[in-house]
Amino acid sequence: MIDEGDKYCIDVLTQISAVNSALQSVALGLLDEHLGHCVTQAVAEGGDEADAKLAEASAAIRAAGAVLVAERRALDALHLGGQLTGVARADVSP
């Protein structure tokens, strides 16, 4: 996948992980804003809109959790395989 002479595969994976973490941070901030404004307003008004907003938020939270779990498992697999030699466990925590 990565030609010899190019960047070391684990270095590329580390960079991808950093980008994923940054995107997750933005997504969680957006979700927080959505809960604080859109969902709160819909719940205050009640009705079907409130149910829909709560269902959307719940699905987004589940999806965010699934992404975090998948990334953690991938990083654990790399760590356990000895691929992250010298990297402290705290450096790969979500």
User: In DSSP terms, counting alpha (H) and pi (I) runs of 4 or more, how many helices?
Assistant: 2
How large is the radius of gyration?
19 Å
Give a count of the beta strands, DSSP E runs of length 2 or more: 0
Cα-to-Cα separation, first versus last residue: 26 Å
Q: What would you say about this model in short?
A:
The protein is mainly α.
Written overview of the protein:
- The protein is mainly α and 94 residues long.
- It has one domain (20-85).
- It contains 2 helices and no strands.
Describe the structure using short key phrases:
94 residues, mainly alpha, 2 helices
Task: Produce the secondary structure layout.
Blueprint: H1 9-45, H2 47-80
Helix pairs in contact: 1-2
